[in-house]
Amino acid sequence: MPSQRVRSARRTVSVAAPAHVVYGILADAPRWPVLLPSYVHVERMDFDGTGETLLAWEFEDGRVRSSRLRRTLRPQARSVDFEQDDPAWPGDTVAGSWSVEPDGAERSLVTLRQETPQPYTGTSAGPDGPGTDPAEWTARLREAAERWDRLDELLLAFEERMRVEGPAELVYDFLYRVEDWPELLPHVDDSSVREDRPGTQIVVLDTGAVEAGSMAGPDGTGGSATVRLCFPHAGRIVFKETAPPRPIAAHSGEWSLVPDESGLTVVCTHRVLLREESADAAPGEDTLPVDVRRQVRERLGRESRETLRLAKWHAESPVRRLRR
Predict the structure, then answer these.
(1) 12-15 — which CB contacts under 8 Å span 24+ positions?
(2) Which residue, of 1, 64, 131, 252, has the greatest Cβ tally within 10 A?
């Protein structure tokens, strides 16, 4: 940015995690939605082993923002150089680097350097281009990394899939029209949808009062708030809960349609980060960490299967009528 004034910033924090763990979080961008709060989805557009281009979507202050990141990964040096653009504000490129240095066997020193154009009119914010507050993003990285020795217990990934002998367009239509779900899905009592721009949905689902031992939202109900990114030409809907119910800390996933010669398979994937307290059995309680994982898996799986069955019925009913 030689012709434009820039503001330079540098922030170094101590992190209670090994250097390779911290670098791994920075390098593995597609995993950010379950580890870093603001990220909804990160799509890797190209990668040659060192350089990559990412499209990232974030949800902050009630709005979804997208950005393009160009990164150079240097695993031997444990550093990442980046440039981040906001498509809505051409020329507002935030550039900088992350570096991770060992500080003993199980600690690291993490440094973020960045240069932000002045005045900065864009809205991009993230660990590869914080735009305004490096301290906030180093703090978020530190919080994610310091769970490193418990991530095997806290992370959960699984999928549900169903074969459909019907048009992919009808399946996608059912999954997209989430405002109709209260009339169709037994676990949804009410829904509201805000679509500020085509394909970007902010959804609130009311799943009613919860039973003892099941997942509950902050207000004690089974409600959830979700951001959904819809890609109709690719047959995909990516989602992330913005206020997941207890005991979930983060929950993201994707509906995807995989066509073949005679129909298609509809797949719903889930990636879950449990709250840290769920990994500890409270004194006097019978619930163990394995029970929490099972309860989360069972409920999310059951709700996904209900949705898949109704999507299948929605797509196959016109086909059955035509065959008569």
Answers:
(1) 12/109, 12/110, 12/111, 12/112, 12/138, 13/109, 13/110, 13/138, 13/139, 13/141, 13/142, 14/103, 14/107, 14/108, 14/109, 14/110, 15/107, 15/108, 15/109, 15/110, 15/141, 15/142, 15/145, 15/146
(2) 252
- Cβ atoms < 10 Å from Cβ of 19: 22
* Cα–Cα dist 268/204, whole Å: 19
- Strands of the sheet with 236-241, listed across from one edge: 155-164, 264-274, 248-259, 236-241, 224-231, 200-206, 190-197
Do residues 15 and 112 make contact, with C-beta atoms less than 8 angstroms apart?
A: no
Question: Domain 6-146 belongs to what topology?
Answer: Alpha-D-Glucose-1,6-Bisphosphate; Chain A, domain 4 (3.30.530)
Please state which CATH number belongs to domain 151-323: 3.30.530.20
Q: Vertex 146, ends 291 and 156: CA angle to 5°?
A: 30
Q: What are 217-243's pLDDT values in tens digits?
A: 444 445 678 999 999 999 999 999 998
Question: Which one is predicted more confidently, 137 or 41?
Answer: 41
Please report where in the chains the tokens 């099941």 appear, as a residue.
214
Q: Give the position of tokens 């994982």.
A: 293
Asked if pLDDT for residue 324 goes beyond 60, the answer is no
pTM, 2 dp: 0.86
